[in-house]
Amino acid sequence: MTEASHLGTVRTAYDTVAADYADLLRTELDTKPLDRAMLAAFAELVQASGGGPVADLGCGPGRVTAHLRALGVDPFGVDLSPEMVAVARREHPGLRFEVGSMTALDLPDGSLRGAVAWYSTVHTPPEVLPGVFAEIHRVLAPGGLLLLAFKAGDQVRHLERGYGHELSLDVYWLPPDRVAGLAERAGLAVEARLVREPDAQERPRSGQQAFLLARRPEQP
Questions:
Q1: Cis-peptide, bond into residue 204, ω within 30° of zero
Q2: What is the pLDDT of residues 58-79, one digit of tens each?
Q3: What is the three-class DSSP state of 40?
Q4: Homologous superfamily of 5-215
């Protein structure tokens, strides 16, 4: 299968910045109580459904994967960037991390109780997102949950520098209603949304941040 053109660009960018990205964002969740609250609610709901494997899709250096483990779920990480996976394995040797793409996950149908895509769809062109949501729906078990974090807006920003490195990367800001609609058309039922303003660390370069919790229904 031919790889989508944007995947190579994203892989190259994150291979380049992997170590510095990990250092800069290592404690980011410490100052984001609403972000932690969404992760905690997701973890509680997964546990209430009986637990099971949870995939952190686009896991980067594994900070969210490790946070999920601390919340009592059974997570593993998947990332497009081999360098990010290498950093994650070094920093969190007790957790599993694999190279892979959200567009074609190497996972059996219905094998996950949950999936987290924490800002990992922000480099995905909107026309590719329906396939990503369909793939997540495929790997979720009936009743399985998806937690998505993304940038709320209606624009594309091109980055030529980030995390101390030159790179070339598009960042897509999408309206929450549009993202919710794409998830629903893939067969996921949206259960909750949160939109928050940028915090002091994110200003002035950032805008609203959005979070969406959706579930694969128990019955078709």
A1: yes
A2: 999 999 999 999 999 999 999 9
A3: helix
A4: Vaccinia Virus protein VP39 (3.40.50.150)
